């Protein structure tokens, strides 16, 4: 049983008995910085302390100190999350893994990499590329988000429509459990079904079942692909959705199919001057990577579906630089919109055939609640990110934005969708998750949590309704 101690000073003293003093932060500015992730309007509280873990031993020490003191532990990577999953709560210690950033092994023959949780996604991708290998998951935050955080939320990205999400590449991991024990889950082999798939259970669990400190990730060969781009411009958002549905219905699987709307295009161009086309309501950015005649035929089929859906123009054969510029615009959409005001980010996923209807409903929600909603999407797999903007300090607009947020979640569920595709439930999606998960399924979640974390030490109140 925990033995609660009297004061924050006692808690810090307990931490510093086993963790170097300079790795235990207590300055008000540090506590404020590490108290929350990038989710707008998700609740948070100042933690008692922040531990900058540099080793598994530091994580173990922090978890054991917290458990002994009746406190909670919130694991954090780079803090780029958009659902409040890394937000601190009262009576908590934040354990940051950002300094655990070593790539431990690259095995080119077995096509795998072993890395600590704090390695940045882009750093890992560049390191394995030097060995002729490729790690496909590429969230928009790939330059600043960590692979541990990616695993905790099962992050996707632009390539996920064809190549899958983080869970598809996690072979194994090292995890610190709620009692401070270290366990190794998973395998290094191409196949393996020994026991329950606890590795997959940990992926997407948002730090509520264990703290992932090391990952073994599957890689693909870097070569063998030949990029072709197809760019469609549309005078209506729903028409772009019709093109997405038509491409999916035809059985075409592009390596990327991304949507960006007029608000995003104009915001990115105003910030970065990329020379993007104005006067269109939406653009679809498609890539196919099959080689030779097969790739040419597939690109033609994508272009044909865009044209049939009413595209104002369809361009093929753009240069690599042009394609990279357009996809950069897609990646920069979120930070460019943040310059306009706080952004409440949605992360819904609907069946691909319902994308046009969902886009229509998003537009209706924006109109009915008098808010600005920009749209970006991993359109190829139905994962939409409506971005609701409210001017800073405008409480009335903020209230309307929250109403629009809730309505979009309800509309998503009504169309057979799920309330989060890749950002995680965190705090922002708890009401939607409570509606999506049946009471019996919620009971199963609670039973799993109780089995692995009976004291509720690890990130309580996140990931599923309690």
Summary tags:
alpha+beta; Uridine Diphospho-n-acetylenolpyruvylglucosamine Reductase, domain 3; Vanillyl-alcohol Oxidase, Chain A, domain 3; 3 domains; 15 helices; globular
List the SSEs and their pairings.
Blueprint: H1 8-16, E1 24-25, H2 28-33, E2 49-52, H3 56-69, E3 72-76, E4 92-96, E5 103-107, E6 112-116, H4 121-129, E7 133-134, H5 147-153, H6 160-163, E8 170-176, E9 182-186, H7 198-202, E10 211-218, E11 220-221, E12 228-234, H8 237-249, E13 256-261, H9 262-272, E14 282-288, H10 292-308, E15 313-316, H11 320-338, E16 343-345, E17 348-349, H12 355-369, E18 372-378, E19 383-389, H13 395-414, H14 430-436, H15 439-452
Parallel strand pairs: 2-4, 3-4
Antiparallel strand pairs: 1-2, 5-6, 6-10, 7-11, 8-9, 8-10, 12-14, 12-15, 13-14, 13-18, 16-19, 17-19, 18-19
Helix pairs in contact: 8-10, 8-12, 9-11, 12-13
Describe it:
With about 475 residues, the protein is an alpha+beta fold. It has 3 domains: about 10-95, Uridine Diphospho-n-acetylenolpyruvylglucosamine Reductase, domain 2, CATH 3.30.43; about 105-220, Uridine Diphospho-n-acetylenolpyruvylglucosamine Reductase, domain 3; about 230-415, FAD-linked oxidases, C-terminal domain (Vanillyl-alcohol Oxidase, Chain A, domain 3). The protein is about 35% helix and about 20% strand. It is built from 15 helices and 19 strands. The protein has helices spanning about 10-15, 30-35, 55-70, 120-130, 145-155, 160-165, 200, 235-250, 260-270, 290-310, 320-340, 355-370, 395-415, 430-435, 440-450; strands spanning about 25, 50, 70-75, 90-95, 105, 110-115, 135, 170-175, 180-185, 210-220, 220, 230-235, 255-260, 280-290, 315, 345, 350, 370-380, 385-390. Helix 8 (about 235-250) packs antiparallel against helix 12 (about 355-370). The longest helix has 20 residues, at about 395-415. The chain starts with 7 loop residues before the first helix and ends in a 14-residue tail after the last helix.
């Amino acid at each position: 049983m925990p033995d609660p101690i009297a004061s924050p000073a006692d808690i810090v003293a307990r931490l510093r008995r086993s963790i170097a003093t300079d790795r235990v932060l207590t300055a008000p500015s540090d506590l404020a910085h590490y108290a929350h992730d990038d989710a707008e309007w998700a609740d948070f509280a100042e933690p008692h302390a922040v531990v900058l873990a540099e080793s598994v031993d530091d994580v173990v020490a922090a978890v054991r100190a917290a458990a002994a003191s009746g406190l909670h532990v919130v694991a954090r990577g780079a803090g780029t999350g958009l659902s409040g999953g890394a937000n601190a709560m009262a009576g908590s210690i934040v354990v940051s893994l950002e300094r655990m950033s070593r790539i431990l092994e690259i095995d080119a023959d077995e096509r795998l990499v072993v890395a600590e949780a704090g390695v940045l996604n882009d750093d890992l991708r560049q390191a394995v590329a030097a060995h002729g290998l490729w790690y496909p998951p590429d969230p928009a935050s790939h330059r600043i988000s960590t692979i541990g955080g990616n695993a905790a939320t099962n992050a996707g990205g632009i390539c996920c429509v064809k190549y899958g999400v983080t869970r598809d590449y996690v072979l194994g991991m090292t995890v610190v459990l709620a009692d401070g024990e270290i366990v190794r889950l998973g395998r290094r082999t191409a196949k393996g079904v020994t026991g329950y798939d606890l590795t997959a259970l940990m992926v997407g669990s948002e730090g509520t079942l264990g703290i992932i400190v090391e990952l073994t990730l599957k890689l693909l060969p870097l070569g063998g692909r030949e990029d072709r781009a197809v760019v469609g411009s549309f005078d209506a958002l729903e028409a772009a959705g019709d093109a997405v549905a038509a491409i999916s219905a035809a059985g075409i699987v592009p390596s990327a199919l991304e949507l960006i709307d007029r608000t995003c295009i104009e915001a990115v161009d105003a910030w970065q001057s990329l020379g993007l086309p104005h006067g269109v309501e939406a653009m679809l950015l498609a890539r196919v990577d099959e080689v030779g005649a097969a790739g040419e035929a597939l690109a033609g089929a994508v272009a044909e579906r865009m044209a049939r859906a009413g595209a104002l123009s369809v361009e093929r054969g753009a240069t690599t630089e042009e394609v990279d510029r357009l996809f950069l615009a897609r990646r920069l959409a979120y930070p460019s919109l943040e310059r306009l005001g706080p952004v409440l980010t949605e992360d819904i996923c609907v069946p691909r055939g319902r994308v046009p209807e969902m886009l229509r409903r998003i537009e209706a929600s924006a109109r009915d609640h008098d808010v600005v909603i920009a749209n970006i999407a991993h359109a190829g797999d139905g994962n939409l990110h409506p971005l609701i903007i409210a001017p800073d300090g405008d409480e009335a607009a903020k209230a309307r934005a929250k109403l629009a947020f809730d309505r979009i979640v309800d509309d998503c569920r009504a169309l057979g969708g799920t309330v989060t595709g890749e950002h995680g439930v965190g705090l922002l999606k708890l009401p939607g998750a409570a509606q999506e998960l049946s009471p019996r399924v919620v009971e199963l979640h609670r039973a799993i949590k109780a089995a692995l974390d009976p004291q509720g030490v690890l990130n309580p109140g996140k990931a599923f309704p309690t």
